[in-house]
Specification:
- Helix content is 42%, strand content 7%.
- By secondary structure, the protein is of the alpha/beta class.
- The protein has a five-stranded parallel beta sheet with strand order 3-2-1-4-5, with helices on both faces.
- Helix 3 packs parallel to helix 4, helix 11 packs antiparallel against helix 12 and helix 14 packs across helix 15.
- The structure holds a DNA duplex.
DNA sequence: AAGATGTTCTA
DNA sequence: AGAACATCT
């Protein structure tokens, strides 16, 4: 295995030196070549947003300097294709093995599988590890060996597993560098000049990099954690952990977080500090949600673009780009929502509670397609994370068995008084309402004219009237829901009559395209299980891989393929965090971040590689099975290993396919299939076919 | 003591 | 919105 050659450690979203199993393995094996490959085209629609790239840039610089102090450096490569870059690095360094840590988003599952196939074929030893989760998704199953479908059950199981999560590894003391003299780094460009200006303020609030992540963790554990249960639902309290971006980029390991929190919990439990103990439970639960997001993504890889509950695909979403824009700009007329949206745009950050408020408003009041909202979060959040965001939006949209009720509308006015009782949060982000008394701050439309006047507010002029009334929204939601159920019943009837072919397809398999608007803005706006049989010994061989197989024609994804690159810009948002602002004037002042309105963000929709619809007759799917690989038992990744579930209202087809696939899976060359799929965005759709059971 | 009213929670 | 729980009278 080790031979004479050195090892490549392929960094991805594990930008840390401590508790990094891939790095540790590389160091153990001898000389190391640390590599990071920037290949955003592989991400398709999920090209990272501006602030996310800012973070990445700094995190990589931080990692590089740490590696240098340990004796090596980070080789960076700019590439349209990670796997070919790896091959290049192998060629120029004579590396004979490669180590990396697992990722669980659908794009990575495909890419990593392919990497493994290709590299192995080249005689390279490939080993991968769990560095991102307490337990691998395939380790956590119910009494029947099936994956859980609700969070509570999942998390309960995680907390009562027969073995503990791995203990965090110490960072290496020294790294012997492989010979990189013939392997120059590419300079990676993560932001253009305009973006640089827009990002200028971020460094005041955030410090990317693993050692800063460690500091943030320690600060939180020793500080706000104990009060977490009390404080966690105030919109602007600085009592959250602020770990999410660090966790997203793997700057701190979740095991370490878990470890430290558990130690505190034991301590507080011994002291009889009930509140402290409960705080840890709540904090760990949010870590659990992150775990669950990976779990869901692994088990249902199309969960970032399809509702997990089948009937939701019949929901008549309101396709109204004007609404969408109004929401993004924070001009809905609901102060709590607007404050949140403006904070998001200005800072790339939102308190968890406010994320729920704005997304719930988006889905239930505006009834816009949730994927639009999710995409906007992706573009703007500093901690944008595909798996977490997909879980969040699905939860909000009522598309999970344990999500919020579909027909429940959260009223931002009432939420305002619970999350922001004194209106401070609203006043900070909506300067035009800064003089409005608390009594009216969350429902200015009810305020007496005299009060509004005194506050310098003219509704409909310098602050909008509610874009949609809550009552109207409720009525419209009821209609939409009954329409949805009708459609669903009709579709089911059609299936029973055997006339289903094609009928349901248009509605169910063609996700609503993103609006042009999110990419392009008009110009007048300033733009801008039972225990696993062999629990431990194969830990570092658990390579999630994907097997695809022939299924049937089910997908015709036309609309999604043709996406133009375009300019992404935002509605104007006040970014002047300092409160005082002229109350007059709809024109919001231009704060620092706003000096740049328009960030051009290319969309790499590699429409090349999309197959014709004839070829589309092969829709990927895969199955769960265990098979030998590299001497280790490897679960083969499966999207629909779900025999549970009346909850995931399935059509029987979905379930049947599952078993058919199990039989058929090995007959098709995964790579051939996968290559056509790599342009990602369509991946999930293809994998799932039109099964409802997702 | 039982009923009304209020509070908190929901992945 | 509605259940579960807590507090008041």
């Amino acid at each position: 295995m080790s031979g004479g050659g050195c090892s490549i450690v392929w960094f991805r979203r594990d930008l840390r030196v401590g508790d990094n199993p891939a790095l540790a393995a590389g160091v153990r094996a001898g000389a190391v070549i640390a590599v990071y490959i920037w290949a955003p085209e592989e991400e398709g629609h999920y090209y990272p947003g501006r602030v996310s790239r800012w973070w990445l840039k700094h995190s990589l610089a931080h990692l590089d300097s740490s590696l240098r102090s340990l004796g090596t450096s980070l080789i960076t490569k700019r590439s349209p294709d990670s796997v070919s870059s790896l091959l290049e690095v192998i060629k120029s360094t004579g590396a004979t093995q490669i180590f990396f840590n697992h990722l669980y988003d659908p794009l990575s599952l495909v890419r990593d599988h392919r990497a493994k196939e290709v590299l192995t074929a080249q005689g390279i030893a490939v080993r991968s590890f769990n560095a991102d989760l307490l337990y691998e998704p395939w380790e956590v199953n119910d009494a029947h060996g099936h994956p859980f479908t609700t969070f509570a059950a999942f998390w309960e199981r995680c907390l009562s597993m027969p073995y503990d999560p791995e203990s965090p590894l110490l960072p290496p003391k020294r790294i012997i560098s492989g010979d990189v003299s013939r392997c120059p780094s590419d300079t990676l460009v993560f932001e253009d000049e305009l973006e640089k200006a827009s990002n200028a303020l971020l460094a005041r609030a955030w410090s990317p990099g693993w050692s800063n992540a460690d500091k943030a963790l320690t600060t939180f554990i020793n500080g706000p954690l104990i009060e977490y249960s009390k404080n966690r639902r105030k919109a602007d309290s600085a009592t959250t952990s602020f770990l999410s971006p660090h966790l997203h980029f793997g700057e701190v390991s979740v095991r370490k977080v878990f470890h430290l929190a558990c130690i505190k919990q034991v301590l507080w439990a011994n002291e009889g500090n009930k509140a402290g103990e409960e705080s840890v439970n709540l904090f760990l639960k949010s870590i659990g949600l992150r775990e669950y997001s990976r779990y869901m993504s692994f088990n249902h890889p199309h969960s970032h673009e399809r509702p997990l509950l089948g009937h939701l695909k019949f929901f008549p979403w309101v396709i109204n780009e004007g609404y969408f824009k109004t929401w993004r700009q924070g001009r809905t007329g609901y102060p709590l929502v607007d404050a949140g949206m403006r904070e998001l745009w200005a800072t790339g950050w939102l308190h968890d509670r406010i994320r729920v408020v704005v997304s719930s408003f988006f889905v239930k009041v505006l009834q816009l397609p949730w994927r639009w909202g999710m995409k906007y979060f992706w573009d703007t959040l500093l901690d944008a994370d595909l798996e977490s965001d997909a879980l969040g939006w699905q939860y909000i949209s009522g598309t999970l068995p344990d999500g919020r009720e579909l027909d429940r509308i959260d009223n931002p006015q009432f939420e305002g008084y619970t999350f922001d009782p004194n209106g401070e949060y609203v006043r900070r982000w909506l300067p035009e309402l800064s003089r409005l008394p608390t009594e009216w701050i969350h429902h200015p439309w009810n305020a007496p004219e005299s009060v509004l006047q005194a506050a310098g507010i003219e509704l409909g002029s310098n602050y909008p009237l509610p874009i949609v009334g809550i009552d109207a929204a409720k009525a419209r939601l009821q209609e939409a829901l009954s329409e949805m159920w009708q459609q669903e019943a009709a579709s089911r009837a059609a299936v029973e009559n055997g006339t289903d072919e094609g009928l349901g397809d248009s509605s169910e398999s063609t996700p609503i395209a993103f609006p042009q608007d999110i990419q392009m803005e008009e110009s007048h706006e300033p733009t801008r299980n039972n225990p696993p049989p062999v629990p431990r010994q194969y830990e570092d061989q658990m390579v999630p891989s994907m097997t695809s197989s022939l299924l049937r024609v089910e997908e015709e994804e036309t609309s999604l393929h043709l996406r133009n690159s375009a300019e992404d810009s935002r509605g104007e948002v006040p970014t002047n965090v300092n409160v005082n602002q002229q109350a007059g004037g709809d024109t919001l002042n231009h704060g620092v971040l706003q000096t740049v309105h328009s960030n051009t963000r290319p969309y790499y929709d590699t429409a090349i590689g999309i197959r014709s619809s004839a070829e589309d007759s092969t829709a990927e799917s895969s199955s769960v099975s265990r098979r030998e690989r590299d001497g280790g038992v490897v679960p083969v990744w499966s999207p629909s290993s779900t025999s549970f579930s009346e909850q995931f209202v399935g059509d029987e087809n979905g379930i049947c396919n599952q078993f058919i696939l199990l039989a058929e899976a090995p007959s098709v060359s995964p790579i051939d299939e996968l290559e056509a799929v790599i342009p990602n965005w369509t991946l999930a759709a293809r994998i799932g076919g039109s099964q409802k059971l997702q």
